[in-house]
DNA sequence: TACAGTTGATGACGTACGAAAATCTCGATG
DNA sequence: CATCGAGATTTTCGTACGTCATCAACTGTA
């Protein structure tokens, strides 16, 4: 195993509270502060932990509409399209995928008008052969990060 | 005005570093530590900030496959299906949507075999009328949280 | 040898609290 | 009717105190 049990527990503890102090983590995991500090540094260096962010409720700040946009794209234009999408800051996730469509993107908008405007603008690109937009009625769960397995000894 | 502005700046600063200290935030925004503390508490109480998490690279811990699963569901079974999906911890996001399908879910798996097993298990539910799975070839961006608008005076 | 823990020293950190400043409220006044 | 201003409310600030993170040198252990 590339990462140890303690690392998994550490990650899981941080998933519960990303601003927890090293001391509280040390107490929770029953190891020393030094150990927590060392392992955390390692996890960050290895890239397992890429950073820390607040979890925002975009609904609460006026972004009420979420949409899933699927695109069929001319093969050689795929990089351009994905770059364009990524640079739209309201695009939360952009995936190149197998299946009926080539790209699936998830975006957040202040209202349906704003959404329509942005999507229409995107679809002017002649390399987009087909598109399909699904508006989210209810986000049952969103961007949930699940806990890592801890093999108990 | 000034009030909302400070909150937006505060959120944006935290998006840059979710573990930034109140002092460093205070310095960056040129207000006192107390002010940062108060506004942060308010943002948390209002639900704008729902918590703090590390951003995990699931690739780095062995979850190499991401899939977008779309389902057509018998109308009255929708709550059951979404509950089931949400309770699958590997489901990152579960949306009820308009369009050809009723549910779009995004999940992460250790390998394609694991993915197939889980999806097949899901599809045994007789209330699922149709399904469509797209495997992610490349996550151009994922769970990006964009910064809030700051109206400059 | 490699990893975890301990100790101690130092500067940074979070929070509580009272004071100061800014803002709002609303009736009185010209 | 518009303006004023005393008092109330809200917001911000500085200070103080106990806690925390970090580093280094050292010990224990498998």
Give structural notes.
Chains A, B: Keywords: DNA-binding, Transcription, Transcription regulation. Chains A, B: This is Transcriptional regulator, AsnC family. Chains A, B: One of its GO terms (biological process) is response to amino acid. Chains A, B: InterPro entries: ArsR-like_HTH, AsnC-type_HTH_dom, Dimeric_a/b-barrel, HTH_trans_regulator_Lrp, Tscrpt_reg_AsnC-like, Tscrpt_reg_AsnC/Lrp_C, WH-like_DNA-bd_sf, WH_DNA-bd_sf. Two copies of one chain form a homodimer. Chain A has 153 residues and is α+β, with helices and mostly antiparallel strands. Chain A folds into two domains: 42 residues, Arc Repressor Mutant, subunit A, CATH 1.10.10; 78 residues, Alpha-Beta Plaits, CATH 3.30.70.920. Chain A is built from five helices and five strands, in the order αααββαββαβ. A four-stranded antiparallel sheet of chain A has the order 3-4-2-5. In chain A, a hairpin with a 5-residue loop joins β3 and β4. Chain A is elongated, with a radius of gyration of 20 Å. The mean pLDDT of chain A is 93. At the A-B interface, α1, β1, α4, β3 and β4 of A face α1, β1, α4, β3 and β4 of B. Chain B binds a DNA duplex (30 and 30 nucleotides) through α3.
Summed up, what is this model?
The structure is a homodimer of 153-residue chains. Chain A has helices at 5-16, 22-29, 33-46, 78-87, 112-122, and strands spanning 49-56, 65-73, 91-97, 103-109, 128-141.
